[in-house]
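Task 17 of the worksheet. Students: predict the tertiary structure of the chain below and write it out as structure tokens. Keep your answer in the requested format; marks are given for formatting as well as content.
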Amino acid sequence: MVRMILEIDINFLLDNKITAHQYTIAKLISDNKVIMLKKYIAYTNTLNDLPKDLSQLKVAGFLPSTFNSGNFINLDTIEISPKFIKASTFSTDPFDEFYAAFPIKALRPDGMYDYLRVDQNKCRKLYHNIVRTKPTVHEHIVRCLRSEVEERSLKGQMAYMKRMPAWLTSESWKAYEDHIETDVDTTQEEKRKAYGTSIE
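Model answer:
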């Protein structure tokens, strides 16, 4: 029996307003695993919900705009949109973007420069093990990294920036997850206030 293990990013589901079940359908179609999809639908007893699930994937932009979920659905002919493929796979090595965003060096408290981008090959393997095949995780980590660099630069704390291997192994990006979530909430609140002002 062929086994398939899916890792699903909850934030990806929330951002695109789809369920884990709907993501599984899209992923199996994208990977050309139609036989497995049919078994999955039969096992979950969700055949009657398939038109609704496919319609939601279309609303999310993961199915072509020309797709029509009528009474007869042929799973063998359904195509996934480039938007989903881009969101669930990498077209280039994600480590290259992470590497470019990471500071080159830091001036330590003792007045000596310390190069931070060390052990590149080791870090590439570490990063690939962390993000695997999940672009959303990669994007999240890079956003956290940029938030940390920005905050340290503003506060004059770049001297305490970790070297890349230590930054990855200690999962340092997690210390700045609240920062980027706060930034998103603030932006949404500003948009809401701006919208409210414009219609008064």
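Marker's comment: Residues 184-200 have pLDDT under 50 and may be disordered. The two ends are 62 Å apart (CA to CA).
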